[in-house]
Amino acid sequence: MNSSGLWGGGTLLSSCSGQCSGGLLCDVAVDGDYTCFNYTDSAFVLLIRDSGYQSDEDAAARVADASYVSKVVELPDDTEVYPHVDNCYLYDVSKLEINSDIDQVVLAGGNSYRGYYKGRVGYLTLNSDFIANQSQITRVSLINLNLKDVLHDLPSKLPVNTTQLDLKNTLIYAFPTQLTALPKLEKLNLGSNKIEEVSALNFSDTLTALNLSDNNIVAFEATYPNLEILYLGGNNLTAIPAAVYNCTKLKSLYVLGSSLLSPIFTDSQFQFLQSLDTLDVTEADFDTQPACQTNNTQLLRNTIPVCLTSAAPVATTTTDSSSGGIATGVIIAITAGGAVLILILLVLVICVCRRRRRAVKFITAELDDPQLVPLMLKPGDIKNVKKIGAGGHCVVWLVRYRKSQLLASKRLRKDLARRRITKAFIEEIKLAAPLDHPSVVKLVGIAWTVKTDIQALYEYVDNGNVTDYLTRPGTLREWTQQKLQIALEVAEALVYLHSFAPPVLHRDLRASNVLLTSEMKAKVSKVGVSHLRALASGDKDQQSVMGPWQAPEVLMGSDDRDPAVDIFSFGVLLSELDTHAPPYNDARSLSGTQLAEAVVLQMIAAGSIRLRFGEDCPSDLRSLADSCLAKNPRVRPAASELVYALRTIKKLV
């Protein structure tokens, strides 16, 4: 393949207008170059190799797993066996016409569809028709790909004759009920995803094999009357689910690698498990050994000691006096149960108190900082007025201090009040404490008591943000002195922040993070918040903290401690001021559909997409923006150069 000019990405098509003989599929790039792909036996297999795209889950794994690199290096490589293409050359799949003797399609991220690292995926967008009209296709595998954006309508893109569907390692977070729209689906592989629950609504009477291994499942309530093979290993189950025993045709059950409770089964459950052709579970999968009160211990599959219990209490013939004895026993049992309950509550109270004391000690130590002590305010002097905002990790209240001054009170969301996030919040406060510049939102004070959460109190900026300003009907589209002044004041804020040793970086500069006073003075907000946002989202499945304002080196996972990352974001901010629109909102695929953000981020990382500016944008301003948006961070201007250039442009406009 000629690699020149292909960084714009390409599309998987049928034959490329006759360029590929024999009905072969091909990849056509934006410059017209193409590559033909051979079939393998009765299948079309295409490996989409890693080349810059990184999912949030993969980014989190790089940080959390010390052996990440070695594990990835050890993954199998089948690129000498199957056709392959780099993901940066191919991210769009059009409607495909496939040879009639081909009954299987495999699209897999990485160098092989046999091996994978969970969360490490490629990215593809699928045309609305994809292979829907290819009735000869019965087996479809979309493996190691980010399917978040296509899962909702995936059945409409697949043949109605699909009997086998493999969606392993595709970042699925909920059981895809919509797949029941495939009337002939028999085998479904959802392994190595993020599914937590399989509810009773996830019913299917066509499935004979279901793989849910290596997910996060805590509840399995669905019944499959024709299911013969079920994989549930590597989940968070605390017992073999009761619904499993209702799968009357089940022959093989795999639960290896689950952490189960004590192995106590009813007689009927024991017989059900004994009758299976395959039961993949070991004694190590149970937390504790059973303590059978009835001494009815049996060996499950002749190896695992389990305790059998009746499904209901055994009936006993008694006299009147024995009935009295039973009543007395019930009273004793209730009394004993009450005592146990009181003991449990007492233990819980003690644990909560100890945890609270530890939290108090931790926060007190963190806030005992010479920079922060002068900023401590009395919580009693602060009165809530109204809630004015909420983000990924914090809520913001408008408060009145000492019955006069309005401030913005920023507090951690209660569901995120864990030690490492609290510590990051305090670090954000420490970062903001010494900042004192007219174009940076000022930290006024801190308040905290044992009974209240930490509050960071900032000056209240009352005129919204730049995004709000740009979307107001009366805002002119051309570059006015007012818009140039906003850009200049943001640049002056960057000069100030970058003058520290080491430089203070914003890392998330965008129009929505620049506030405006009633006098239309710009003030940069949320300095240092991006690290806290990353930690908070890490507790919620590592949801994205990236965006099209980020520099290519940040998106590629490189070190982001260089002021040049803020300069790139400033270039994106200039495009927002110019177009009054979000960055790259006009980016389209060859088929005319809007590119998903993940694709846009991949193209930014590769340097293969340019921001749009209006025809009336002053040429000097456009040149300045282009220099900020350079892929090489070393050629981007310093913040001081931005200030000089903008002052010059202001004189000419």
Automatic annotation (TrEMBL):
Q: Which SUPFAM superfamilies match?
A: L domain-like (SSF52058), Protein kinase-like (PK-like) (SSF56112)
Q: Which GO terms describe its molecular function?
A: ATP binding; protein serine/threonine kinase activity; protein tyrosine kinase activity
Q: Which UniProt keywords apply?
A: Leucine-rich repeat, Membrane, Repeat, Transmembrane, Transmembrane helix
Q: Give a yes or no for keyword Repeat in this entry.
A: yes
InterPro entries, A to Z? Kinase-like_dom_sf, Leu-rich_rpt, Leu-rich_rpt_typical-subtyp, LRR_dom_sf, Prot_kinase_dom, Ser/Thr_Kinases-Pseudokinases, Tyr_kinase_AS, Tyr_kinase_cat_dom
Q: Which residues form the Protein kinase domain?
A: 382-649
Q: Which residues cross the membrane?
A: 326-353
Cited Pfam families: Pkinase (PF00069)
Q: What is this protein called?
A: Protein kinase domain-containing protein
Organism from which the protein derives: Phytophthora sojae (strain P6497) (Soybean stem and root rot agent)
